Each structure stands twice: as C-alpha cells, then as structure tokens.
C-alpha cells in the first residue's frame, strides 16, 4: 500500500435494515489534506465518516490507517478525533474540563493538561472562557469548544460531521476560514462532511462528491466545478443547465438544435452525451445574431446579478446576467467554447439517462 | 395586574396546602408535645431513645433496599434508554405493570412464594434440599421493598438517561474513554438528578413502610412504621407517642435527603469508582 495515504477505505460495504448505504466503497485519503465528502442527505457521507471513526463496523471491507488494518479497533483506541454535528459537549463540565477530557483519560499530568488546554482555547479564540458552563454559550462558541476538545488530543485525523450546519450564514463563513486556518497551522488531515457545496468548494483540497453510496467524482474544487464528470455532479455543484447532445467529432457538438464549437475531444463519433452550461457563462445578446434565441419567462434580482429563465424551443435555460430583460422579450444567448462542458453518459448516476 | 392574576390562580392550592399539609403537620407537632390530658410534655420525645434499635433497623433495611434498587435500576434504565422508541414504551410498560396490581396482593403473593411450604421451598424439595427459612427474615423485608419500589428508581433514572444523546457517549469514546470510563465520567454524572430523585422515592417509602415488614418480616422485624401504626390502631393506643415517632422519622428523612441532594456529581463519581 502506498505510504502517503493516511486512511484507506478498501471495498467497504455497510447496510442498515437490508438497505445498502455503502457498496464496495473505496477511498484513499492523503496525509495533511483537507478532504470533503459532499453529497445530499442519505448519500452515505456520514456513514463513511463513522466507519473511519470506528463508530460503525462495516459489514465487509477494511479500514487502513497508515497501511495498518484498524477495522476492528474500537473508537477509543484510534488516533482519530471527531467534531460531532450537534457538538455533543459534556453539559456537566465547564469549558476547561470539556477540553481537558481526553487528556485526563490519558492520565496526563495536570500541569501539562493546563498548558495544552490553554493553548488550544487560544487557538480557537476562547481564552478567558475556561470556567464558563457550555450551556451558557452561543452555538458558534460551543462549536469552538467541540473543535478544541478534539484537537487537544493531537489526532492524526480530525473528522468533522457537518459541524457548521447549525450556525447562521455569517458565522458559518467565519468558521470556514477559521477551520481552514487551523488545519493549515496544525498540518493534520481533516475529513469534512457537508451537503453544502459552497462550503466544500471554499475549504477543501479535495472534494469527494457522493450519491447513493457511490463516489461520483473526486477532484480539486476547481476541477469539480469546471469539469463535472456527470449530470449529478454538475447539478449538485452550483446551478447549471444540463442538456442532452451529440458529440459529432472532436471540438464539435450539437445541442438545443444548433452546432457549437467546444474544447472537448476523445469521444466516439456521434456519441450521445450530456452538456453542462453554467448560468453565469451564458451571455445575453441580440437575438438576430446570437447562437440561440428565446423568450424571457421571468427575471429575479439576486443582488450581484439578475437571474432569468429563458424559454428556448421548450428548454428552460437558467441565465445569470448583470443586465435585466423584461419578461416576454425575445433575447439571444451566446455560449463560448470554454463554457461548454461535455459529460459522458456513463451511467455513474442513474438519473442521467432520464434527462434524454 | 398580571402578577395579581397569577397569585389568584394559586389561591385554591394555597388553601389546599394549608388544610391538608400544614394543618396535619401542626397537629402532629401538638400531639407529640402533649400528654393524654392535653398538657405540655417532652416525655414523648425524650422517651423515644428506647426505640433506637427499631429506628436503626428501619434506616438500615431501607438503605440496603435503596442501594439494591439503584444497582438493579441503573443498568436497566440505561439499557431501556438506548432502545428503539417502540421497545422503550414496551419495557416501560413492563416496569410499571406490577404497579397496576394491588400493593397488598403483590406482597401476599411474595408471602406464598417464600413460605416454608411455599412454592420456592417446594421446588427445592424436589431436589431434596431445604426447606429454607425465607419468610419472616430481614432479607424478605428487603426483597419486598426492592420489589415494590424498584419502578420508582427506574423511572427517574430512565427519564434523565433518555436525554443523554448517543453522540455524547460517542464523543467520550472518541476522546479515548473505554466503556467503563464512559459510564463513570459521563453517564453517571449526567444521571445525578435521576439518582437523587430515585433514592428519595425509594428510601422514603421504604423507611416508613409497615405492611411489608409485617407480612414478610413476621413479628421479629418491626420497623418504625409498624411502631407508629400500633400507637394509633393497635393495642398500645398512644397517639402522642406515635406523633413523636412520626416527628423523629421526619427529621431522619429530611436529614438523609439533605445529604443525598448535597452530593454533587464529582463526589458521586468518586464514590462509585
């Protein structure tokens, strides 16, 4: 097994009540990486996290930690710590004792515990809160206690299960930056579970998009956003227009009744494919000269841009533009070669075929 | 205005309390401090020392019964609290099921089980062992208390444990706590309110019971409850002495309750480890 992988999931299967959550699931996680498991609820991302943490014994498959099989090792003997979704703080203990919990279990001397806890509370910006009851803290503060409580044990891996889910938008953004900073300053592996695509794109080195217990795509946030491998990923990451099309030959594709020049190649002649166009990549122009034309059905002001739905030959395009057009107007749409993303219909996701 | 309305609502309860709680207490006090002619005396209270063995026995047996209840109920309540909701309801019903039967009947049932020629001894007889003396022993009295009051321990424990989220237990495991440590460092401290309530709800009826000791303990294991009952309904009719006993019993109960409620989680943790 390769050495720089810290965690390897090897053909893991998990089912609850005969319902398969993970089926032959394999994933390698590199050391010191910020990995995000991204997918809709029920896609198996939390289950994956619980398998790594040791809270869930897979029905079959192996979990390797630095190449060593840890599948049957209980959670309390793994060098992994978890930040739980609902914080799971010990309400009978104050902030200091919560953070010190793991070190006390390991029977570290109190002087060392004091040093470590103080340092960690500093890192998460909670110095001075030592004697505070956890119930007397805000959600964001409780979240920081949970992070400090996990990190103080110097885990090799930190597992985070939708840790920012309960926070409001502004706080969530702050914590995203904070978490990234902590991860970089401590140089440890973060495995982060979320259903929020924006959160995944902001923080991760690697994003693992999952659906129905199957990995749809693994890649950097930029790759995932710009080159979605299938309709599911394209649809889940950001908003997109997905249309069926035919790839005639290299750099030539037709969809929506027109032929377009694109930058993709290596498809079979006249292969049936799916085309993804991001709403912000469509340029509104004069309907007489534009590649496509359609009637504006609705226009909504979104702050940075207007969001329009444009009916073109029965397909409703989602278009984002800084210019607004009145509903009912006939407008033209231009799509550059770079903005056309071609995806195989490889059946990775069962919904793909239904698009046709 | 609002405050006034809130007060108005509480008036019926205040009247109720005055009639049925305060007045009887005052009456017990008056009876305890007077003699048959109605003149003031402290003889009733000062003479109570001769019943010390009975008081000691009552406290001792009630304490044992409470401890046994706690030992049985704690793991049971925890197990129930971790079940699926449907099973939780089923098991809670099973816990309470005996309480739907008449208290006397239940205790009579134990009599016929424990008797020298009762079911248990007859069963042993099949193997040529026994009969064992089970009825009319202190053990039988404790058994009666545990059997009758166990639900009062399980229910408060269950109600605090059901509030302990699984993720809190997992968090403790995650931080390196073995199952034993999870219990001593997390579950027991979080269950303290249930433990103190349970102790109160078992200890108080146990220390003042008279039916259990009479039916299962024979004549030889009198408890305070029996003594008090005799002063009011028995041959040795003396409500003044009975009231004095009741007063002393109340002080004992208040004293033990103040000890239990002053125990905080950390002390309890140390005690149990």
CATH fold-level label of the largest domain in chain B: MetI-like fold
Question: Residue-averaged pLDDT of chain A, rounded?
Answer: 88
Helix content of chain A: 10-25%
Structural class computed from helices and strand pairing of chain A: alpha+beta
Q: SSE string of chain A, helix = H, strand = E?
A: EEEHEEEHHHEHEHEEHHEEEEEEEEEE
> Unreliable runs of chain B, pLDDT <50, ≥5 residues?
none
Q: Biggest sheet of chain B, in brief?
A: none
Looking at the structure, what is the overall shape of chain A? elongated
CATH T-level topology of the largest domain in chain A: Rossmann fold
The number of domains of chain B is 2
Neighbour order of strands in the largest sheet of chain A: 6-7-8-3-9-10
Fraction of residues in β-strands of chain B: under 5%
Q: Uncertain segments of chain A of ≥5 residues (pLDDT<50)?
A: 348-356
